[in-house]
Design goal:
Blueprint: H1 2-18, H2 29-45
């Protein structure tokens, strides 16, 4: 789930940068890209991956 959100944020950052949209300092393309990278790092670390299979034993 976090990887999908980060992909959407990367696309928004690309659109801001490609269309040369002037935004305030909070929503600049670099800041949106860094938020996307942070979410991608959390996804790779295993946070937000969904259900864990450790709890299910047969």
């Amino acid at each position: 789930m976090l990887a999908i959100i980060s992909a959407v944020l990367f696309f928004i950052a690309f659109l801001i940068n490609a269309a040369d949209i002037s935004t305030n300092d909070t929503f600049s393309s670099t800041n949106v890209m860094l938020i996307g990278l942070a979410l991608l790092a959390l996804h790779v670390a295993g946070i937000g991956a969904g259900w864990s299979t450790r709890g299910r034993r047969r």
